[in-house]
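YM 10:42: Engulfment and cell motility 1 sequence, as discussed on the call
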Amino acid sequence: MAFRWSLGNHENFALQIADATNFYITEKNRNDIKNGSILRLTTSPCKSTDRYTFCFSEFLYDLANASRDITFAQEFINLDGISLLTQMVESGTDFGDLLSFTLTAFVELMDHGIVSWDTFSVAFIKKIASYVNKSAMDTAVLQRSLAILESMVLNSQDLYHKVAQEITIGQLIPHLQGTDQDIQTYTIAVINALFLKAPEEKRQVRLQFAHTNVIRSPTPINDEMAHQLYVLQVLTFNLLEDRMMTKMDPQDQAQRDIIFELRRIAFDVECEPNNSGSIEKRKSMYTRDYKKLGFINHVNPAVDFTQIPPGMLALDNMLYFARHHQDAYIRIVLENSSREDKHECPFGRSSIELTKMLCEILKVGELPSENCHDFHPMFFTHDRSFEEFFCISIQLLNKTWKEMRATSEDFNKVMQVVREQIMRALTLKPNSLDQFKSRLQNLSYTEILKIRQSERMNQEDFQSRPILELREKIQPEIMELIKQQRLNRLCEGTCFRKISSRRRQDKFWYCRLSPNHKVLHYGDLEESPQGEVPHDSLQDKLPVADIKAVITGKDCPHMKEKGALKQNKEVLELAFSVLYESDEYLNFIAPDKHEYCVWTDGLNALLGKEMTSDYTKSDMDTLLSMEMKLRLLDLENIQIPEAPPPIPKEPSNYDFVYDCN
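YM 10:58: structure's back
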């Protein structure tokens, strides 16, 4: 190529894709070139890096764009270009807008993973941190600085300690209170990185307060911000993991004092001194109260908290509920302790199982998924969001228990319903805990049953082969039922109004089908009848066997003849005619849409044709749905297989068959 174009020193030139990427063509990526791609001849990466190196201040903008190319980046790094960039930053020289290009080039070069993050000096870290700590800083510079700090923290434990000395959560909060969504996203990413790399002893700091302003940002939340909020939510809830995985020590007096506190608040009793009454009497009193509190082990309820998960986290939630929602706590305990044993909702057992369930729903203890964007805004609106979440849920559990009229045998069933209620409410992404509570109020047990039935029918209609086959089998029966109803209505008859082309006159005529479905009887009336008109009083007859067709709408003869009626859309929709013999018609205008559908369906049924009215479709959907629900009633909570079970092989002999002879 160089020879054809008379280019000397071919190593000074290279091909580049002429698009937004400007990637160089190399032996590694040459096979990725698509047909029709436009290539440009340009200086080689080596020559370009030389040019940028010696004319740095003039070509920083081009450098920022070119650094995305791995081939260029390799050449630039080989020439110690990274050191030149860091020296410019460390020097602190104020070179205006070019600083953002410098930091952009640095970020792009480091993203290739060629250079280790551990190679940077404390001076460089301090300089980058100073850009973040400044109250007024160029948006592009701030964004790149936050990205650099995040990468430092995530890629090096040593750099985490150095960055943590320069940046605090409090210094990052002002960036969350602005309106720039990119800055907010990068700030949350830095908070997440600092939190993720923090030593265990420092992870107990609550971070929810830092996020309230992000959620209330006037800008819509994009996927990247949603992911960072999701990560922050998971990391925050992982603070609960230690308590969730901590067993209660039945001999630990401090832990046992919490149970005593629950008893004291519920029954308004003070801890009796050791010399008050006999030991047996006090044990009996404690056992009675612990039973009322709903613990499994009435003698030593501390044993209930030795199961992990949820461990001590369940006891923490119970104590929070008792102290911060005291009225609701006392009402639930006393209300259940006054019921029959089999109908009481055990508060202690319910709290333990509910805490375990909430940890599963919120994935407490799990690492964040890389691609998940699922976060719940309400958890960023309260310092003790998980505990408040529990308080709302335990009251929901007690309410659902009463709605289901549950007994102790129904405990697991109630927990399943409560889980579904919570999951459905969370799916709606409530913005606050109050909104979450309001959504739960609309998800009563009765409503859950309706939703289940509706979803089940929709799912089975489209997915389950046995259900589709059942529908196909039932449909002809339903259609026959609708047909009989239509014919019965024709036998009862209908009064039709005669309409003149000149003006509307109060003249009527009546038509009805004979009980044997063979003849239409019709005739004029002086006035509108109060009930059915007997066959004897109707002078005219039309044998059904003579009917050739049923015509509707504008094709009817009486609609073509009468100009005024032809222009009346309402009348057009109610008009139909019966064609018999050669060119004879019996013309109708139904009193309303319902009668129109009944008569056109009935006449089509007499002729052996399909009933196609909207009324028939509506009846079919309603009756078919009801019939399907009735037939599937006995299969509640039983999974219907997608395919029929396999037919077993024939036995080797039939000796087991009883011979009646």
